[in-house]
Amino acid sequence: MKKLSTAVLLLGTILVAAQEQEEKGKQIEDIVIVGNRSVKRTKLETPVPVDVINIDKIQRSSPQMTAQDLLNYVVPSFNSVRQSASDGTEHIDPVSLRGMGPDQVLVLLNGKRRHTTSLVNYQNTVGNGSVGTDLSTIPIIAIEKIEVLRDGAAAQYGSDAIAGVINIILKKNPGASASLTYGLSGRNDGETYQAGVNYGASLGKNDGFINLSLQLSHRGKTTRTQNHDLDIFGKNFAYEFADNPDEAREQDDLMLKKEGLTRDDFNFQIGDAQIRQGQLFFNSEYPLNDNLKFYSFGGFSIKEGKGYGFRRLPSEDFNIVKEIYPYGFQAVLGSQIYDVSYAVGAKYNVNNWLIDLSNTFGSNTFKYNVSNTNNASLGIKSPTSFYAGSHSFLQNTVNLDVAKNIKNFNIAFGGEFRFEQYQIKAGDEASYTQYDINGNVAVDGSQVIGAGGSQSFIGFSPANALKKDRHSTAVYADVSYDLDKKLSIDLAGRFENYSDFGNTLNGKLALRYEFVKNYAVRAAVGTGFRAPSLQQQYFNNSYADISTSGLKIVTKGIFRNDSQAARDLNFDKLKQETSVNASAGFTFKPLNNLFITIDGYWIRVKDRIVITSNITDERLANYGVESGRFFANAIDTETKGIELVATYDWKLGGGNLNINLAGNYTETKITDFHFPEKIDTPRDEYFGPDQINIIETLSPKTKASLGLNYGIGKFNFLVRNTYFGKVIRDGFPFGVVQEFSPKVVTDVSVGYNLTKNINLTVGANNIFDVFPDLQTYKNSYYGVFKYAPVQMGTLGSYFFGRLNFNF
């Protein structure tokens, strides 16, 4: 509690959506949908904290172009950082809430469960070993508002809602709008284009509508590496490992000059991946009569990414074909990500009974293409580009929700049936196969001349390929009681049965009491669960990584928990996570336009599912890898924190000033380790310092934001400072522990209404070009990674211009 109270004094309070004013100066309060069923409450009347983000108003003046980037700067308990050289993870940014994993926050679209991606994060990034939801698949021009429920809600919404719920609500208003954005980093890279158009029209009578959105975007790559001291033509990976570093460097320089090359020709491309994306979304509702209405919403997104792996140097004889790449190469990992979703349903209202029957479908497919590479075992016959396979995830959910309001009571109950399917498909044979000197598939004892598979990203093989599915059935009940907005009591219970993990029963109790007008206390306690995702159960592959010795690139493996390799090492079978959530807080409205909320929280997760460190065991050599990783219920964790939120509207100098101050302090600790009884793997290999670091200290414990938004006449001015607290990165097994000091990022923009319908906004994100601290040499992979992708990331300053049209 001492730490929490200190955090209160240090942080102040947090940014939420700016509030509009009525002519008489009264505040218009947002009605919250998430967290209850058919109970109309404002965000200050909810028994648990909810942020309401007015996307149309905030995004107009903000540099950020996607939902996850915007939330990263306006909700401090939300965290998202772009990753570099991390295979698929640099194409889909992992996001987290309250310091928990990406798979412990549930995403809804129009109140319906949204599918996750098919991608497993396994490159030691934030959210390592988890599967999240790709918020960038939803075009920001299609979004009306976002509700962030910062409290456990598994008893209401089911698995994944341990840290909270993000509900994205699509636009339904008539009329047309459009947006054009251009941006460029302060280093003349990372060029961005975004064009979006939204059109809404009425359908029939009684408030029917259809709303369509189209958005196209492009984000250029960035390079944030440094001139490293790689031993280009020698036999060592870096000069510090050469017998005579100065002589080795001098010899390389002479050879470069002879070939007409410079050291820059061997620099790594390290930074943000290039992303191109096209999205088409719709939202519709058609009332057949006063009692019955049909609705449908969904969309399609295609994303193409281009990232870069580790450079293969001429000295790596076993990994390169010198006849093709005499000076080595840096492979390019291309992605094609297809995301499809749609929901159809009907709402029937009779005698205040609201019946909602719906079907929600979603799928995510991730295809890999590797170019500028080789299969070294084929020699001169090797292709230089490969199709490396794909993985996909499909989810279909049927819901029946029934609710009725009886005086001060609201009763809701219903059921859910969900079907899920996960699939891995193999790539080209040459993308995963090692051949012998005669061009045949290598077997034990074969003579080979090089490493097999496509270098940098080894393709999925038929041994990796699979198609698995499961289903779950759930029933729930909610009861809410409101007494003249003074006392609110919410009680929820949910029973769920999984075809592969059995039964779970969870409950939640939430209370709010207004002891004096505009002053209230609130509290909640509940249990939760998260079933292992199909991806965590069945993802398996071989991948290239730096050896634990740090001197060469080798092949490592990720094995299924039910694989023979897992049985060889005596791993326990996966089981579900269970959790307990508790929160307590205060809400204040001391002035007409001043709102303040303070909430503390505590989350305990038992049997948390993680991916292990690299286990080196002689038995894994039988599977052709140096080391292996496995999914396991390896740890228990405890998370505690405090959040403060305040917003104030002030009429100043003929204009309106909105002040938002916000902050979050969160701390996660591993409270227990679970080692299989018969495993003899050392603890540092089973779950070592690198993995402990990702859970406990790789994300900022403290994050705060102060935003000032001033509108006067045709002008609008935004100044927003975001504070990212310190993080710690452990370079185990061959790096060091490094602390990255706190940083403040400043966003500014100036908007001007050219006409009644056209607005021009120019500004910058990170105008003072703030970066994380430089990495120590040992943590930088021999000088390659100048900056670690932590805190605000490695983009630096970014300048933009945006035209907004409303008709």
Automatic annotation (TrEMBL):
Q: Which PROSITE patterns match?
A: TONB_DEPENDENT_REC_3
Keywords from the named record: Cell outer membrane, Membrane, TonB box, Transmembrane, Transmembrane beta strand, Transport
What InterPro entries does this protein's entry cite? Beta-barrel_TonB, Beta-barrel_TonB_sf, Plug_dom, Plug_dom_sf, TonB-dep_rcpt-like
Q: Give a Pfam family name.
A: Plug
Superkingdom of the organism of origin? Bacteria
Give the way it sits in the membrane. Multi-pass membrane protein
Q: Which PANTHER family match?
A: PTHR47234, SECRETIN_TONB SHORT N-TERMINAL DOMAIN-CONTAINING PROTEIN
- The molecule here is called Iron complex outermembrane recepter protein
The species this protein was found in: Chryseobacterium ureilyticum
